[in-house]
């Protein structure tokens, strides 16, 4: 179907000369039921601002957030791939768009998606070039970011973790994710300051406690495939994303 021009050409020209940037508004049906409706580009980022409705099975990858243009522009520029959009959080699904346990949501968020499930954005998130990105489910009232270790299938390329291993950008993403989950489970036993991205003895000792409690046959403190399964079973129930 053809796009529907909302404003006359003269008004569009006046908007450009007046320093505003307006994106073409497209009929929702013309883009398909799963596509967001394009609105405007009030911050002049050169990408569309859209409105996202809640759809609990779908997810987005947050590239950056903030209340002003500079933070959003940086997120757009630093995005290694994909075509980002942005939204005004008060006008989209009431999910989490910024850091957890923050009382006030950011005004805007730059993102990729929406994706038809949570696996696809999580596969992107575990790329070390996206260290600062995070995944959000389009679920009303959600206050937890998606823990991708809980979402990705057993076939994901999960590294084996052990004390003394060489830390790389690739395995540090998994280590940091695991440490964050250990901290969320009990911050007194595993405080957040221990979330370092390095698989150290403190992390191995905490893993061993879970192994002992479950009578695991894996080497103590080593996170192999069986232990990854054990940890996700025990830790992922703490979240409601």
Give structural notes.
The protein has 241 residues and is α+β, with helices and mostly antiparallel strands. It has two domains: 44-146, no CATH class; 156-238, Muramoyl-pentapeptide Carboxypeptidase, domain 1, CATH 1.10.101.10. The chain is 31% helix and 14% strand. The chain has helices at residues 9-17, 28-31, 69-78, 119-125, 148-151, 169-185, 201-213, 225-235, and strands at residues 37-38, 50-51, 55-66, 85-88, 108-115, 134-138. The protein has a four-stranded antiparallel β-sheet. A two-stranded antiparallel ribbon has the order 1-2. The longest helix is centred in the C-terminal third of the chain and has 17 residues, at 169-185. It starts with 8 loop residues before the first helix and ends in a 6-residue tail after the last helix.
Side-by-side strand order of the widest sheet: 4-5-3-6
pLDDT averaged residue by residue: 86
Summarize the helix and strand pattern as letters: HHEEEHEEHEHHHH
The shape is elongated
What's the number of domains? Answer: 2
Count the beta strands.
6
Q: How far do the termini sit from each other?
A: 36 Å
The share of residues in extended strands comes to: 5-15%
Stretches with pLDDT under 50, minimum 5 residues: 1-33
Treating each run of at least 4 consecutive H or I residues as one helix, how many helices? Answer: 8
Biggest β-sheet strands, sense, barrel? 4 strands, antiparallel
| Structural class designation | alpha+beta
């Amino acid at each position: 179907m053809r796009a529907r021009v909302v404003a006359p050409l003269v008004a569009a020209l006046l908007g450009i000369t007046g320093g505003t940037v307006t994106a073409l508004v497209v009929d929702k049906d013309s883009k398909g039921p799963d596509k967001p409706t394009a609105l405007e580009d009030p911050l002049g980022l050169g990408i569309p601002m859209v409105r996202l409705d809640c759809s609990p099975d779908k997810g987005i990858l947050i590239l950056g957030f903030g209340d002003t243009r500079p933070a959003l522009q940086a997120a757009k520029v630093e995005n290694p791939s994909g075509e980002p959009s942005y939204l005004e959080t008060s006008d989209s699904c009431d999910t989490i768009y910024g850091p957890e346990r923050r009382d006030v949501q950011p005004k805007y968020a730059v993102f990729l998606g929406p994706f038809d499930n949570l696996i696809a954005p999580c596969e992107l998130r575990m790329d070390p070039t996206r260290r600062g990105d995070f995944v959000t489910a389009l679920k009303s009232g959600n206050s937890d970011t998606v823990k991708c270790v809980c979402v990705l299938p057993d076939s994901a390329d999960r590294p084996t973790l052990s004390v003394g291993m060489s830390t790389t950008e690739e395995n540090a993403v998994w280590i940091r994710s695991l440490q964050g989950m250990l901290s969320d489970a009990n911050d007194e036993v595993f405080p957040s300051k221990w979330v370092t991205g390095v698989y150290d003895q403190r992390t191995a000792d905490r893993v061993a406690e879970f192994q002992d409690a479950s009578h695991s046959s894996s080497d103590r403190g080593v996170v192999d495939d069986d232990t990854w399964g054990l940890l996700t079973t025990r830790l992922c129930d703490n979240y409601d994303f």
